[in-house]
Amino acid sequence: MLVNQLDHSPKVNGQATNGRGIHEKGFPLNRFRLHSLRDFFVIAFYAVTAEPSGRFHLHWTLTNIYLTSAYFFGHPLLMCLLPRLAHNPFQMISVASRALNDATGQHQTITQIYHNAVNPVSSRDMLLSQNEYRDDMMSISVSFVIHGCLLLLSWPLIGLVLLGRGGKVLIHRLMIRFTR
To answer: Would you call 134 helix, strand, or coil by DSSP?
Structure first.
């Protein structure tokens, strides 16, 4: 990782991150999206399969088969058909982060950077990084819920997408045929 000399933000492959693998805009990198989807799948699969006592016995039911096929085939296919769903549309920016940025501005002089580094009280940078960390955790939580719902609804959504695209092709062909 490289560190930018002016804003001390780490760079990964030339892109600014906050050091935890999350872009400054609050969007998780692709590796987190896969891990959160896997976690959702494991939790849902266990909740469906486990007995009320908590013991895990694998019994293949329609629900387990649906969850497994949605995880391995449905969700990736849905992401290929609609790639804009792969990114979290919600960027969480708290009021505290917005107020701190508005009050102090984005650019600091060398004197302000030095003062923030040696100030014994929480510096602007420390407060801002804590607020951004909370914002990132909220964005990750929202992404977890969104992709969990997309996992559960992947096969019906794939059917609707294919039906919609097939309908467009059919209407286009009918229009060409009747306009001749």
So the answer is: helix
